[in-house]
Amino acid sequence: MPYQSNDFMIYWIKNYYSLPQDTDIIWTSFGDKNIIYCINGEWYEDGWLGNAAVIGYSLDENQCLEIRAIASEQFSGNKIFIEHEGKTEEYLLRSGENIFYLKPENPEGYFRIYSEKTFFPSNGDMRELSVQLSVMPS
Q1: Per-residue confidence of the chain (138 residues) as pLDDT tens digits?
Q2: What is the rounded (10 degree) CA torsion for 90, 35, 85, 38?
Q3: Residues forming a β-bridge with 41
Q4: pTM (two decimals)
């Protein structure tokens, strides 16, 4: 019986829930890679982006990156820039959630994201912030 594989997990699910062994289990996997990490810059654990960050990724073949930037009402009209594979794209933010897609030529690489404007929160947080950011494979 293989361990750390889909076959083992299906075997375990069937036995745990006392399912007949001929029960079909549909397995969905997002692949082994799907790693997204901050190389340098200010991308904080709570999702806030400072002025700029370089974000690395390791994806499965033919995947895109979905970039979600949440802008506050006072930041509507701010621009963020994404430098990737020798090109710079400019995105105008509206208040609320903004979704952008990045289709890398290679499954491993990095991109730089930076904001036109930043602010210091009035709640005592001393960080320079711009937007709330999430990056995920799609």
Answers
A1: 344 455 666 676 667 667 677 665 554 444 555 678 787 888 888 889 999 999 888 888 888 899 999 998 888 889 999 999 999 999 999 999 999 999 998 888 899 999 999 999 888 889 999 999 988 888
A2: 60
A3: 53
A4: 0.72
